[in-house]
Amino acid sequence: MAERFMAPPAAGIPALHIAGLNVFYGRSHALQGVDLTLQGGVLSVVGRNGMGKTTMCKAVMGLVPIAAGSIRLFGEEIAGRAPAEIARLGVGYVPQGRRLWRSLTVDEHLRLMQRGKRGAWTPERIYEVFPRLAERRNNGGAQLSGGEQQMLAISRALLLNPRLLIMDEPTEGLAPVIVAHVEEMLVRLAEQGDVAILVIEQNIGVATQMSDPVAIMVNGRINRVIASATLAGDRDLQQRLLGVGRHGHDETDAAGAGGAPAGVSATAAPQQAAGPMRVYLSNPTIPTRWSQPVPAARIEAQARTISRPTLATLDGRPVGDVRPLAATTGAEPYVVVAGTLDTKGEELRFIRDLIRAEGLRTRLVDISTSGRSAGGDVTPQEIALAHPRGSAGISSGDRGTAVAAMTEAFKAWLPRQQGVLGVISAGGSGATAMVTPAMQELLVGLPKLMISTMASGDVRAYVGAADIAMLNAVTDVQGINQVSRLVLGNGARAMAAMAKARLADLRRETPRRREQAEKPLVGLTMFGVTTPCVQQVAKLVEAEWEPLVFHATGTGGRSMEKLVDSGLVGAVIDVSTTEICDMMMGGILPATEDRFGAIIRTRIPYVGSVGALDMVNFAAPETMPERYRGRKTYPHNPQITLMRTTPEENARMGRWIGERLNEMEGPVRFLIPELGVSALDAAGQPFHDPAADSALFLALEQTVRTTTNRQLIRMPLHINDPAFAAALVQHFRALHAGRRRERAGVGRG
After folding, report:
1. Residue 625, C-beta contacts closer than 8 angstroms, at least 6 positions apart
2. Average pLDDT over residues 506-517
3. What angle do CA 131, 135, 138 make, to 5 degrees?
4. Cα 248 to chain centroid, rounded
5. 173: left (phi over 0), alpha (psi -120 to 50) or beta
6. What pLDDT is recorded for position 289?
7. What is the residue-wise DSSP string for 645-672?
8. What are phi and psi of 730, to 5 degrees?
9. Cα angle 22-28-34, degrees, rounded to a multiple of 5
10. What is the pLDDT of residues 695-713, one digit of tens each?
11. Which of 91, 107, 558, 710 could be joined to 137 by an S-S link, Cβ 3.0–4.6 Å?
């Protein structure tokens, strides 16, 4: 979010000075001696419904007659003048409700407002500031979303090139992500110095983020002007002045008597305490004149916690941008409970409470896109700011687009956080699709648990190459009942146990342990039919390397390459490249087109082979595609059917692999076992087919551009022969001998 703009100290002529302003509606005394000064920048005025905020705006604009008082615009008296004259003097007004013409297009609205001499604000500049309006320039006012209508209402006022912009409830009825965009836009306008802005707000969080200090209106008077941090962090003050749990007239003026007079900067606020700050919204739903007082319990339930610092201090000292969440909690580790609180709030809070009961800290993260305030520790607005294209990327008004953008934002936000012990979520297909991409970005070993209605099906898209635990919700994640209480409870306690174990490991880790030399990691790929080879390789290297064996089931290869990309794994012996068969022939355990991509990107030494390239994996026999009927198959088990590859298919695979090997700039040793590529491809076994194997080997030789650095090595051995495993390790050691000497030298230094 943009840094909050603070009005400069009282010096020179103020943009707006109101003194002793009184307004009556018949016998009702609406404004009772209002005193307020806006020196410049942004000033927010907050208060309950019926306190006189809108009447004050209308009085400034000349829309209601005043009984007494003075209104000065940059020193010039404007009280009693006609609204048109006040507008010409440089006052722009964005009324509550926006009030657009339904039949006029966006462009027609803007052209209508641009009259006479052109100033700094033109339709072209409007389209630059609000690119969304440029996209919708030919749409009518009734065809715009709430956020787009607010942008147009603001733009309409800006085209008058005002010196003072008055905005009445600019965020009313807008989704949180759009609210964040409006906040950011208003603050940036003020920072440019062209216009002073008076904002009328009921949302305390919005008001305190946009300006410092904030004026509070109670019963037709400016009760006090107060530091934003003080107001945001003092619940009792909010209750007394803004009617949370009691009426505004219960507050006496004694408390404010000793405070700073209206329009004059108050004493600097005390230093804001470290840690999260609770913010209570007095009207969680849009109120009317007939609204009843909101119960305090509801206010408490829907309160939110600001887990980032205030964006500017009272004396104008700038502070940093949005910090990682852990930075505001004293770096004490915590568990993230994430999800859509607008629809799954009860269930996620149930999980949170159980984890807290185990003695762990938690952070409740809201990734809702509906616009309803749900009271998370981290709000959707904060998550939206992590989006690569900024918070405006989520302000589309289209649900599908907003969900996709929030998914991307959470994926960017979560890995930046420090002190996370684990991440847990619960939901249906939507929440699962939103949360798991972010989980996939986290380090292997960090606990990740998704309680989902999708967990009993194909979860490859959700788990990817990460170590995400999926727990079937059994029933829909909707309310706490006898079944969901058990399932959610099991998930919460499992996460608590994993988080406790991780915390214990972190606390046991001593400097001595960190200094101890650990074996480097080597990734090995294995399939059932190449198991003897991989087991022998692992045994041969384990004295110097720690082998990590990945099951080549599609995700296995991706997992290994993800660790290579991360730098955790710096060496591979890629025995089983069988996933390429499924990728090219439509099997159920495919690689992606990025197979070998991590090796290419990192340029690490590569030792590989053609393990299990003789087979494509399908489910039960009846699930095989019609085009493969009649092919040679082998029932691996009742759920898996293997199909033998043909010479033509092997030639295609050889060419594809060869091209990828050519892209590798690091040293390459690719070993070919001439007597068979799997346990089923041996003399007397079902898939033994020398012609098919020869087609594979020939295509590799014809495609790979061999050099001293990139070599194909044919060996008259079967892949599971001990001598072939020994050859793999021999070439591996030769490629890494120099690298290990370098590491040893660094360690001694």
Report:
1. 586
2. 57
3. 130
4. 38
5. left
6. 58
7. PPHHHHHHHHHHHHHHHHH--S-EEEEE
8. -60, -50
9. 25
10. 999 999 999 999 999 999 9
11. 107
Residue with tokens 């009207």: 283
Contacts of 312 (CB under 8 A, 6+ apart): 3, 4, 5, 6, 212, 318, 319
DSSP output for 7-27 = PPPS-S--SEEEEEEEEEETT
**What's residue 99's pLDDT?**
72
Give the sign of the dihedral formed by CA 679, CA 683, CA 688, CA 693: positive
Residue ranges in 395-443 assigned as alpha helix (H) = 399-413, 429-440
pTM of the model: 0.50
What is the rounded CA–CA span in Å between residue 283 and residue 373? 10
User: By the 8 A CB rule, do 374 and 345 touch?
Assistant: yes
Peptide bond into 673 cis (omega under 30): no
CA atoms within 13 A on the CB side of 329: 21
Residues 642 and 616 sit within 8 Å (Cβ to Cβ): yes
Which whole-number Å values give the CA distances from 272 to 25, 233, 309, 310, 325, in the listed order?
42, 9, 9, 8, 16
Contacts of residue 379, Cβ cutoff 8 Å, sequence gap at least 6: 176, 304, 366
What token pair was written down for 637? 């088990």
Sort 603 into a burial class: Cβ within 10 Å, 0-12 / 13-18 / 19+: exposed
* φ/ψ of residue 538, rounded to 5: -60, -40
What are the distances in angstroms from CA 304 to CA 131, 212, 278, 351, 390?
A: 31, 20, 6, 18, 22
Which residues fall within 8 angstroms of residue 353, CB to CB, at 6 or more apart? none
Task: Identify the sign of the CA torsion 498, 502, 503, 507.
Answer: positive
7-19 average pLDDT score: 69
List own/partner pairs for 536-539 with CB under 8 A and 24 or more apart: 536/722, 536/725, 536/726, 537/573, 537/575, 537/725, 537/728, 537/729
Question: How many other C-beta atoms lie within 10 A of the C-beta of residue 489?
Answer: 14
Q: Are 571 and 604 in contact (CB under 8 A)?
A: yes
Tokens of 34: 């209002």
Amino acid making up residue 62: G
Helix 531-541 and helix 722-748: axis angle, to 10°?
Answer: 30
Is 597:603 a contact under the CB 8 Å cutoff? no
Which amino acid type is present at position 344? K
The CA-to-CA distance between both ends of the chain, in Å, stands at 46
Residue with tokens 């305090």: 296
Nearest to 199 by CA among 156, 247, 154, 149: 154
User: In the numeric block, which tokens belong to residue 407?
Assistant: 């998914």
Specify burial of residue 39 (Cβ count, 10 A radius: 0-12, 13-18, 19+): buried
- Contact between 546 and 522 under an 8 Å Cβ cutoff? The reply is yes
Q: How far is CA 481 from CA 484, 487, 496, in A?
A: 5, 10, 21
Residue 498 has pLDDT above 70, yes or no: yes
| Assigned token pair, 208 | 């305190």
Query: Residue 418 has which token pair?
Result: 């420090």
**Length of the chain counted residue by residue:** 749
Q: Which H or E run includes 102?
A: none
